[in-house]
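Predict structure. Chain length: 167.
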Amino acid sequence: MIPQGKIVANEIQRTLAGATPLTDATIEASEQEMEVVADNGRLLAGINLHLIPQGICLDAEEFCTLPRSKELPYMSPGVEEDTALITTHLVTSRIGDAVYTTNPGEAFPEVNFAIRDGIAGARHVATMSQSGDMLGCYYERADYTEQQFGSSNFETYNVAPDLPADT
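Prediction complete.
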């Protein structure tokens, strides 16, 4: 059995062996506030039922609460019944020609691909899911059927239909 530290060290060495130097001295970062109308009652219940400092999981229901603030400015009642307005933040950093950007939940691949495709002039774009916030899963709802989800919890933890496009 190989100790985990040795595996990590070997991976770092392999990565560094193929690394190329930065030729661009750009160092930039930006943060963007984003508001999303959350319409998934089950997900909103998971946020509202979360007990600080610990959450709860209901095994029989296959459901866990979500650790995020219910206070202004992070969450407020939505205009329509059974909705909430959720405020979150996205952060993007550029170091040379490498870009790192956050996702406030668990984005499906098509969301990450769209983010990468929307960033010009970068040699590398890394999207980091569940960074800075936990808004559950997000994907284009119309792209998936109930059969494709099978027994997953993706539908339970989907935030809102517009989150993928807004990100």
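Summary: The mean pLDDT is 82.
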